[in-house]
Amino acid sequence: MIFTELFNPYHSKGVSWSTVCPITRIDSETLVNPMDNTMKKVYDSVIARDPNQPEFHQAVEEVLESLVPVIQAHPEYLPVVESMVEAERIIQFKVPWYDDSGKLHVNRGFRIQMNSAIGPYKGGLRFHPSVNQSILKFLAFEQVFKNSLTGLPMGGGKGGSDFDPKGKTDSEVMRFCQSFMMELWRHIGANLDVPAGDIGVGGREIGFLFGMYKKLANEFTGVLTGKGISYGGSLIRPEATGYGLVYFAREMLATKGKSFEGASVSISGSGNVAQFACEKVLDLGGKPVTMSDSSGFIHDPKGIDREKLSWIMDLKNKRRGRISEYAQKYPGSTFTASEPEPASNGLWNIEVDVALPCATQNEINGEEAKMLVKNKVMAVAEGANMPCTPEAVEVFLTNRVMFAPGKASNAGGVATSGLEMSQNSLRYNWTREEVDSKLDQIMVDIHKNAAETAEKYGMPDNYVAGANIAGFLKVAEAMTAQGLI
Ligand code: NDP
Asked: What would the pLDDT profile of 234-262 be if each residue is shown by its tens digit?
């Protein structure tokens, strides 16, 4: 399985993916431009400053490639690009906490405040042992473009900790969250920085974090999103990323006269995004056949129906169990462990019409992308952030597989967080239908904006370029107007 190949090992030596994995560019009209010398200089300076941040380099490289035609047309925006690759502020702090047996543990907490040109910093908190500055900077950088694409006034940020909530009791998670917030609270605020959830941070963690913030700040304010409905949360926020992903994919399929009706769909992950992507695929008449967690994936050729999905939700959200239990529960389905299985026995070698990677970064590599192409996948839409390596993206684009980058297709989560902020400011709650229809419209608009921008810059059907350029232009205009400080 690919999770061990988390990044291009040559990045730290300053070698880009296009050098490591040269791919013949068969149709310059639909592919991202290779970096020109101007962009290469920006990229080299990013690597020189932080040589040990491969995930951040990967995210920056993709954006710089997309922006080549923009900077050629608007050289005045080059200083904006040079400025955007540097975070406005990075906060790192110690998070000491005691487990149930009284033993002290010390984790690291972070908040990356990347860009505030168009609004307060906004972006999730990730609790996962892999968390480090490189991963959070990549996520914060992506978030800037994503938030811009939503059309809502939100800057970009991201944070988290190398704490692993897996296997911890509720009271341990609570003590950790309280200690984390003891430091974070002084750096955030409803008009300054509004964190939300991400991997390992769901409703339970947001509740504990909010309670501690309220106590320390001595005020009730919408400083976090993803809150419970009883204390200022928005209906549809838990569903939003997964639903929005499928709305985006629906729009993309429609441009080629296709739909989810009768389509088989592979989904990775079994957390928040994966669960609600699965639910919306079912709503639209599709047939989800896979789900996974870090231990492996299940394949159910008969399809994961509503009853099975509700069992998975209970397993993951309440019992906090492993996905392998699905195969014991439902005869006819199989579980395949992630290690040491070869990729050819993996989730992405299953024949499907649509693939929705919803677990984590770099989960589909070039080899797996080729398997999907061989099996005639129609569309791949990223629910996770950067789940496809640059090599995989090139494989999809060169083979004309419809491909939706996460910063466009998973923007529904943060968009609905923006709607939660609006409701908190209004001291008012919209109905489920109202929020869902606003979310749907935002995803339709993001799709249209990305598609039209790609077309305008001579790269039709290239949603990667369209999303990067459209997201960039709004932030660039705001940064320029504010004097690039
Ligand atoms: P959850 O923690 O709810 O679920 C994550 C899922 O991915 C779990 O099934 C987890 O398995 C699996 N996973 C996580 N890390 C790894 C790994 N290294 N290897 C294999 N499997 C892994 O997170 P979300 O669903 O919220 O987030 C999933 C992705 O979507 C992330 O990339 C996140 O950044 C992105 N995203 C989330 C948004 C949101 O609103 N929640 C918004 C936009 C993007 P296990 O339980 O075994 O760890």
From this structure: 999 999 999 999 999 999 999 999 999 99
Q: How far is the CA of 126 from the centre of ligand 1 (A)?
A: 9
Q: Is the backbone of residue 91 left (phi > 0), alpha (psi -120 to 50) or beta?
A: beta
Residue finishing a domain among 358, 389, 404 = 404
Catalytic residue flag (residue 158): yes
Same domain, 246 and 367: yes
User: In the chain, how many domains are there?
Assistant: 3
pLDDT of residue 345: 81
Q: Which atom of ligand 1 is nearest to the CA of 410?
A: 43
197 lines ligand 1 (CB under 6 A): yes
81 and 101 in a single domain? The answer is: no
Taking residue 231's Cβ as centre, other Cβ atoms within 10 Å add up to 12
Q: What's the mean pLDDT when you consider all of the chain?
A: 93
In a domain, 415, yes or no: no
Burial group, residue 408, by CB count within 10 angstroms (0-12, 13-18, 19+): buried
Determine the Cα–Cα distance for residues 46 and 170; give it in Å rounded to an integer: 40
Tell whether ligand 1 has an atom less than 6 A from the beta carbon of residue 410: yes
* Cα-to-centroid distance, 312 and ligand 1 (Å): 15
Query: Hey, whose CA ends up nearest to atom 48 of ligand 1?
Result: 294
Q: Does the predicted model carry a pTM greater than 0.90?
A: yes
